[in-house]
Design a protein that fits this description.
Elements: H1 7-12, H2 14-30, H3 37-50, E1 54-55, E2 74-77, E3 80-82, E4 96-105, E5 108-117, H4 124-142, H5 150-163, E6 174-177, E7 183-187, E8 204-207, E9 210-212, E10 218-220, E11 227-229, E12 235-237, E13 240-245, E14 248-251
Antiparallel strand pairs: 1-4, 2-4, 3-11, 4-5, 6-7, 6-8, 8-13, 9-12, 10-11, 13-14
The chain binds magnesium ion (2 copies).
One magnesium ion (MG) binds at residues 111, 175, 206, 208, 239.
Amino acid sequence: MIEILSPTQLVRAREPGALVADILQTLRSRSAVGTNLLDIDRWAKAMILEAGAVSCYVDYAPSFGRGPFGHYICTSVNDAVLHGLPRDLVLADGDLVSLDLAVSLGGIVADSAISFVVGDSQPAESLALIDATERALAAGIAVASPGARIGDLSHAIGSSLRASGYSVNTQFGGHGVGSTMHQDPHVANAGRPGRGYTLRPGLLLALEPWVMADTDELVTDADGWTLKSATGCRTAHSEHTIAITEHGAEVLTLPRVAN
Ligand code: MG
Ligand code: MG
């Protein structure tokens, strides 16, 4: 089912978007050498509950994961790229961290992910991975407007990732958002333009390019959730929730203050 929000709902969708952006930026600023992933999860939980929002993750039990997720945020470090289950791990200098957060507020979901490097060591390879996902995300957003097709977005995202020198894995990608986290239409991170569902005002989409430095193959960690690069190489992930409006696309999960 594809949900189309009313103009009033679209205005209300800004609230979960701003909350997710604020929480992610706060977690980014607190994450440093010595931070434990379980602390990040606790901080996320506290901020979600304080805002009166509902976690989309804690009870989430899809076919691709092992039982309910049981945590409030995905924390994927270095070779981990998606669905990183928070664990007792202390961040070290140069670690590449991806945080992915989805919450529901007022009955509407927002979903966003950021990647960054902690500490003084900022490896060029890691920064290039992050830059590639951010640019691919921007490329997808740039073509998102009423009348565009889902394939146009997929093509823009995939072309950007490949232009940055990375192969594209299409096992997991973007999706519709609304009263629940994962809805149709699926937005693959590569595809052919001019195909698929035609965007129209009121549609919320989460676009989420992710890359792995030297492989397109994923493996599942022994925890049953965390997806990692098959080669152990570093990875990155960037995601925004956007609203299709009469005028184009509004990014709902933009941070208010740039880091
Ligand atoms: Mg997400
Ligand atoms: Mg998502």
